[in-house]
Task: structure prediction
Amino acid sequence: KQEVTQIPAALSVPEGENLVLNCSFTDSAIYNLQWFRQDPGKGLTSLLLIQSSQREQTSGRLNASLDKSSGRSTLYIAASQPGDSATYLCAVVATDSWGKFQFGAGTQVVVTP
Amino acid sequence: EAGVTQFPSHSVIEKGQTVTLRCDPISGHDNLYWYRRVMGKEIKFLLHFVKESKQDESGMPNNRFLAERTGGTYSTLKVQPAELEDSGVYFCASSQDLYTQYFGPGTRLTVL
Result:
């Protein structure tokens, strides 16, 4: 049974510091891994999607890596800003799951000015 | 293009009452998913429709939950009778290609 774990559960950093968020999963038979952002009272916003054959994806200040063999993904956010404050969720899609996401519990990030 | 919409945004009901949540997917998306997040836990899958058919309902917690998708368009999720542990945020997502899902804003359900 796939389990997705995110560490740390919460993180507070001063503005300008780089953020490193970790996600681990127990079953490497995944189709893809996706990082989402959730703001309070809002839905989920997709940040980066990494296919199982890829090692990383980048978008602006965001970079996500995937090491399928060790069951790990890391989301890096460079030069954090107060607007980056949100909950970040990692989710995997297993290869035989018809697109069903398995989510981690999330990392709550606060960036202080 | 309109995104996934959910109604209501927030519902407060008494234990034992019935509540119906609605999800309108992006037009043309055959795949519709329901997820929920109860307090302190991760978001969990409830079920998956392909058009009007239930492809996977392995995440439905018990028979108090009934999901339908009329004509393969919008979907409803009914909880009857609601219990305290049903409180949480219910998300709907839709996709065209199975693996790129677009999420709605969620419905926050509070059972008193």
User: Anything to note?
Assistant: The interface with chain A takes residues 4, 31, 33, 35, 41-45, 48, 50, 55-56, 91, 93, 95, 98-106, 108 of chain B (CB under 8 Å). Chain B has a mean pLDDT of 93. The radius of gyration of chain B is 13 Å.
